[in-house]
Design goal:
Helices cover about 75% and strands about 0% of the residues. The longest helix has about 35 residues. It is an all-alpha fold and about 325 residues long.
């Protein structure tokens, strides 16, 4: 329905052509902006309800308990794999998790895996590259989320969250304690939950518009064949260069699989193409713009640098295995 509305608005009401760069960019902007704002509002409402009935400190203590032995990172990564979100669409859940007291490392496991792996991309990958390559792609995406979350969690990076997020956490914790003492009915609490969700949407709106604007521009105006010249088989730096070139891009995993197929058909090694794909969907510039509301630039740099390093290592490993 959102895509139909965006098509009607851009191609019908505005009169832009679907096969033009401007039309594709404007359509992408409206579709993704509406989708992300709706997602953010609904997830914020759900997390507000959870916060109201489950003490934040108890949830945090449970996820940090010794008996889990790192299982929480695997569960977060698997949850990311089954959610059909791109990097920017994953951020509303990331905000909800952080607000709800889920440890930052566990939340990063979700944020890393969610855009990398989804069922549509897996089906397309299976049809294009076969079972072996698909298994390597899926397992590496989940493993990347687990290892990346553990590494980032061990760095104790909570101090680099933005003041806005810290205030959200304090408000949620105080509200949770108050509502635990108060036996007000759910119907009475719901309006306050909805108002809190709307405050979160208003807080991130400028970052959503800026981030999606950057992604829309890249989506519509990147010239065809620009990347192939830097990703050739005879270039020893092709894997890190492909990751670096992918950062300004923005697409979901299903949308980038056909591009990977074209790259491979033109002689680019599959591992290099997969590294490019992972960087596009997991390290996009629009994602960094949206994350600025949640993190300081230092934390964004640490997150991007850590994940980029793992993707580069994965690319070289894929080229060796495949």
């Amino acid at each position: 329905m959102i895509q139909d509305f965006a098509d009607w608005l851009v191609y019908g009401l505005f009169g832009l052509r679907a096969d033009s760069a401007v039309g594709a960019a404007v359509n992408f902007f409206f579709y993704d902006t509406i989708k992300i704002l709706i997602l953010l509002f609904l997830i914020s409402v759900v997390m507000g309800i959870v916060n109201a009935y489950f003490p934040i400190e108890r949830l945090r203590a449970y996820l940090l308990s010794h008996w889990m032995y790192g299982l929480q990172y695997l569960l977060a990564s698997l949850f990311g794999a089954v959610t059909p979100f791109c990097s920017c669409s994953s951020i509303p859940l990331f905000i909800g998790f952080v607000k709800g007291g889920i440890p930052l490392g566990v939340t990063f496991s979700f944020l890393i895996t969610s855009p990398l792996v989804n069922e549509v991309a897996v089906a397309m990958f299976l049809g294009s590259f076969g079972v072996r390559a698909t298994l390597v792609y899926v397992l590496s995406g989940i493993l990347l989320g687990v290892v990346g979350g553990i590494v980032l969690g061990r760095m104790r990076l909570e101090r680099y969250l933005s003041d806005w997020v810290r205030q959200l956490q304090c408000d949620a914790s105080a509200q949770s304690e108050e509502w635990q003492r108060d036996h007000t009915t759910f119907a009475t609490r719901l309006p306050e939950v909805v108002r809190g969700a709307w405050r979160i949407v208003r807080g991130v709106l400028p970052y959503v518009l800026l981030g999606i604007g950057v992604g829309a521009f890249m989506h519509g105006f990147v010239p065809e064949g620009f990347f192939e010249r830097y990703m050739a088989r005879d270039n020893g730096w092709a894997v890190p260069l492909s990751v670096l070139l992918a950062v300004p891009m923005y697409a979901n995993a299903a949308g980038i699989v056909p591009v990977v197929e074209v790259f491979v058909a033109k002689g680019i090694p599959l591992g290099t193409a997969i590294a490019f794909m992972m960087a596009v969907v997991g390290l996009s510039l629009p994602e960094a713009t949206l994350l600025k509301k949640v993190m300081t630039w230092r934390l964004i740099g640490i997150f991007f640098g850590t994940v980029a390093g793992f993707i580069i290592l994965s690319g070289y490993l894929f080229n060796w295995l495949l």
